[in-house]
Description:
Blueprint: E1 3-7, E2 10-13, E3 22-28, E4 31-40, E5 43-51, H1 60-85, E6 94-96
Parallel strand pairs: 1-6
Antiparallel strand pairs: 1-2, 2-3, 3-4, 4-5
Amino acid sequence: MPKIFEYLGILIFFYSNEHEPIHVHAKKGEYESKAEFYLANGLITEIKITNIKGSKPLKDSELENFKIFIEHYADKIVKKWIDYFVYHKNIEFERINKKIK
Length: 101
């Protein structure tokens, strides 16, 4: 489970056997959601936040913080996903403690 970011206590990661569409999981405590990234011609055209079957979704402020983080770091997340799953590179974990405005 490659961990790629931690944002305000929300762990953002991939499972090592992921599949398309490009997506990341976000977990805080017992709550988990994911963000799916849809691309066309190498550009992100849509981001969907979805629930994980069998898990309680992030709620309230954690969900809002996850959405803000995803919008701000979308390109970097997609790059890390491609580096890890396509190019089999090691990816760097980043902890971000300052709130994005």
